[in-house]
Amino acid sequence: MKKTELEFKALGTEIYLQIVCEEGLKSTAEKSLEQAKDFYFSAEKIFSRFVPESELNYFNHNLGKFSQASPHFLAVAKKNLDYYVLSEGMFDPRIIDVLEWIGYVKDFGKNSPIALSEKAFPAMSAEDLRKDLIIRGEEISFNRRMDFAGIAKGYITDTACVTLRQAGFQNFLIDSGGDMFASGVDQKGENWKIDVEGIAEEKILVTLKNAAIATSGIGKRKWEGGEKRFHHLINPKSPQNFSFDLQSVTVVAPSVTEADFWAKVLFLKGKEEGKKFSKEHKIKSIFLDYRGNAWVSGEMKNII
Fold first, then answer.
1. CATH of the domain at 63
2. Quick check: helix, strand or coil at residue 128?
3. How many other β-carbons are positioned within 10 Å of the β-carbon of residue 226?
4. What would the pLDDT profile of 179-232 be if each residue is shown by its tens digit?
5. Dist CA 153 CA 40 (whole Å)
6. Is residue 163 part of a domain?
7. How many angstroms separate the Cα of 59 from the Cα of each of 104, 128, 134, 217?
8. C-alpha to C-alpha distance for 285 and 283, rounded to whole angstroms
9. Which H or E run includes 152?
């Protein structure tokens, strides 16, 4: 078995795609990887708030108006509503005003965030999300501006997996800046071995087969403004407080979208409450604090 690889940058991060297949399928594999790459770039034009003509920005600039949504945008909008309810409001796409206030207004790699300290801190909507994000058939209306970045990358990664499966490939790895799906087996015919950012390989390697892993953390996206420290993970229930008791949370789940969602929610819950929630709901998780201490849930221990 041979591996065919493709690397590129999209969604503000490094993307790595690998297909494991017989030598005779190399040309087909290369074409499939290019198709997946094309989808990443088309998805930026749907979900990115940093692309002026994106579909997200269209809805953000036309509040209160019902408009036809593309299938991908509609799917992610529905996921946001589902996850808002499932997380009891901890996951909320209406954090965009706070993100902009703390200076996260451009692609992080091209921007030095500067908080708008001369302006009043924006208030989160007290309304249920279902009153601000309304879906009517294939049409959507925003009553408040949204940012779908919380799960968009996970959804895009899952959709890229569908592209490769439809081409007939079963053994592949897709890595969207640390949010990954490992399908089938690797080039050695073994389950995929995935390291966790911030933890040495000799300490923890996660074994995956037909499963996703995602990490939510602030190691690369934190900054200072005056005497206050900020990061991009906003707690909608307490948006002015930026917790630094955790460096990251990593979750394994059936899909990248789900892993991405739970990693964010557990991070926002904080170290102790997040660990308790993970135990109660049997989530495969790893919590890494700023002292380098890692806590591994019982379910996660079964695959490392």
1. 1.10.3980.10
2. coil
3. 7
4. 999 999 999 999 999 999 888 888 899 999 999 999 988 766 665 666 677 667
5. 9
6. yes
7. 20, 18, 11, 28
8. 6
9. helix 149-166
